[in-house]
Amino acid sequence: MLALAFVLQLFVRHVVIGQISTATPLNLVVRDELYFRSAQETGDALLKSNILVVSSSIQHTRVGPRVGDELIARMDAEKGICLLDSMSFPDVSLRVYRRGC
């Protein structure tokens, strides 16, 4: 019990009071492009990013339209967006783009 009290006291003094932060940065932004209903809306939202990852249209049961092929065509034609890498798999192709060539 004494050890538990000691650990609790350390936790309160260093974490709660603020000398040590328990927050860790993940640099992860989750947005809702999946739920947009058109290729135009999805493409506009994707163009706000610095790195874009787009898959070709695949058959899926998730909510949202299958607009991957339209997005790839738009990103290929977009000025200021460069293709970094392209990978092909048996049922889907994946493209990675970057803003600012």
Sheet/helix structural class: alpha+beta
C-alpha end-to-end distance: 61 Å
Order of strands, main sheet, comes to 1-3-2
Q: How many strand units?
A: 3
Poorly predicted segments? none
Q: What gyration radius follows from the Cα positions, in whole Å?
A: 22 Å
Instruction: Write down the overall mean pLDDT.
Output: 78
Q: What sequence of helices (H) and strands (E) makes up the elements?
A: HHEHEE
In DSSP terms (H or I, runs of 4 or more residues), the helix count works out at 3
Oligomeric description of these chains: single chain
Largest sheet, strands/sense/barrel: 3 strands, antiparallel
Shape: elongated
**Beta-strand proportion:** 15-25%
The helicity comes to 25-40%
**Domain module count:** 1
Task: Please summarize what this structure is.
The chain has helices spanning 2-16, 39-46, 68-77; strands at residues 51-55, 81-88, 93-99. It has 101 residues and is of the alpha+beta class.
Description:
The protein is α+β, with helices and mostly antiparallel strands and 101 residues long. The protein has helices at residues 2-16, 39-46, 68-77, and strands at 51-55, 81-88, 93-99. The protein has one domain. The protein is 33% helix and 20% strand. The N and C termini lie far apart (61 Å).
